Amino acid sequence: TIIISSLGLGTILTFISSHWLLVWMGLEINTLAILPLMIHQHHPRAVKASTKYFITQATASALLLFASATNAWTSGEWSLIEMINPGSATLATIALALKIGLAPLHFWLPEVLQGLNLTTGLILSTWQKLAPFAVLLQLYPSLNPNLLIFLGMLSTMVGGWGGLNQTQLRKILAYSSIAHLGWMVSILPYSYNLTQLNLILYIIMTSTTFLLFKTLNSTKINSISSSSSKSPLLSIIALMTLLSLGGLPPLSGFMPKWLILQELTKQNLIIPATVMAMTALLSLFFYLRLCYATTLTMSPAPINMLTSWRTKLSHNLILTTTASLSIFLL
Predict the structure, then answer these.
(1) For the residues of 84-106, what is the DSSP string, one character each?
(2) How far, in Å, CA of 143 to CA of 189, rounded?
(3) 20 and 78 in contact (C-beta within 8 Å)?
(4) Less packed terminus of the chain by CB within 10 Å, N or C?
(5) Domain boundaries in the chain?
(6) What separation in angstroms does the CA of 193 have from each of 125, 133, 197, 201, 309?
(7) Per-residue pLDDT of the chain (330 residues; tens, 9 = 90+)
(8) Are 182 and 151 in contact (CB under 8 A)?
(9) Could you tell me which residue ranges the NADH:quinone oxidoreductase/Mrp antiporter transmembrane domain spans (predicted)?
(10) Phi first, then psi: what are they for 184, rounded to 5°?
(11) Cα 328 to Cα 201, 233, 236, distances in angstroms
(12) What is the signed CA dihedral for 180, 250, 172, 283, rounded to 10 degrees?
């Protein structure tokens, strides 16, 4: 109870603060609250993931504190929206990019997510992104648009290429997260509302995917191929959700991509828009691989895993809600 309430408190403190020190304190509480949840498994991989996460987040927090102190030194203001010094704004952008896992500062995210169970992975991929994004959304008028576009383009490339040769579902979801964050950040200087829309839809679709894999008890590609025999309806929902994450037209995930590409072309940013649209195809390729494994392979086929013939029936209201939204919201 203490840990989960601290997790909520850290994010809410960052949401409501306009003073740099309180923002930093909220981000620190957030980091320290999730560490016990990560290390709860008592597994060497969980310990490694927690250590990596702590070191990365501590570095990002130190950099953010340095940026805010430098800004206060030059402007005499500790207010969040008074980011006058361009050097401080760039440092703050880099610190927040490291916090959420944007390329080229993404190196920790796949490794950390791989060491966690699916529930903690869900918290890390959704809730932990909210506080840094709240800061970015308040800072966006003073941030450098070229830097944000560069980080966004690089993230969509890394998110597409990195996920191609993976067999672990958590690593695939980590690279998918990097690609989605790239889309959000690249549109931030031009349309504040589109970033918010994309963030909300990303959280809904990612939550659905994590909850589906948790229900099907799957962490590898070969273990989801037996899902159609366990639960045919769930495997169809998984297919639709994965296609929605990839951004195919009739589904919810198409909406933010479409609107972002439209806005980028309005701003005459034709090259970034083209690059991002092309790299979205790379992401779509590994989502299609997952769809193929989930729904289109015949089961029982000779797969290297234990099959549970008797599965418990469970009514998961959150999964039902998020799945409906991630498929039909368009």
Answers:
(1) --HHHHHHHHHHHHHHHT-TTS-
(2) 8
(3) yes
(4) N
(5) 1-143, 193-329
(6) 21, 13, 6, 12, 47
(7) 999 999 999 999 999 999 999 999 999 999 999 999 999 888 899 999 999 999 999 999 999 999 999 999 998 889 988 888 899 999 999 999 999 999 999 999 999 999 999 999 999 999 999 999 999 999 998 999 999 999 999 999 999 999 998 999 999 999 999 999 999 999 999 998 999 999 999 999 999 999 999 988 888 988 887 777 777 888 889 999 999 999 998 899 999 999 999 999 999 999 999 999 999 999 999 999 999 988 777 555 555 555 555 556 566 788 889 999 999 887
(8) yes
(9) 17-282
(10) -65, -45
(11) 11, 16, 14
(12) -70
Cα 326 from Cα 212, distance rounded (Å)? 12
End-to-end CA distance of the chain: 36
Residue 307 near residue 226 (C-beta atoms within 8 A): yes
Q: Does residue 256 contact residue 198 with C-beta atoms inside 8 Å?
A: yes
Q: Judge contact between 290 and 212, C-beta under 8 A.
A: no
Tell me how far CA of residue 242 lies from CA of 128, 236, 290, in angstroms.
Answer: 22, 10, 8
CA-to-CA distance for 48 and 57, rounded, in angstroms? 14
199 vs 125: CA distance, rounded Å: 11
Alpha carbon 297 to its chain centroid, in Å, reads 28
The structure tokens listed for 214 are 């948790």
DSSP symbol at 79:
B
Please state, in angstroms and rounded to a whole number, the distance separating the CA atoms of residues 247 and 208. Answer: 15
Q: Residue with structure tokens 């990560």?
A: 38
Say if residue 145 is preceded by a cis peptide, omega within 30 of 0.
no
DSSP 3-state of 19: strand
* DSSP state letter for 142: G
Alpha carbon distance 312, 330 (integer Å)? 32
DSSP code, position 165: T
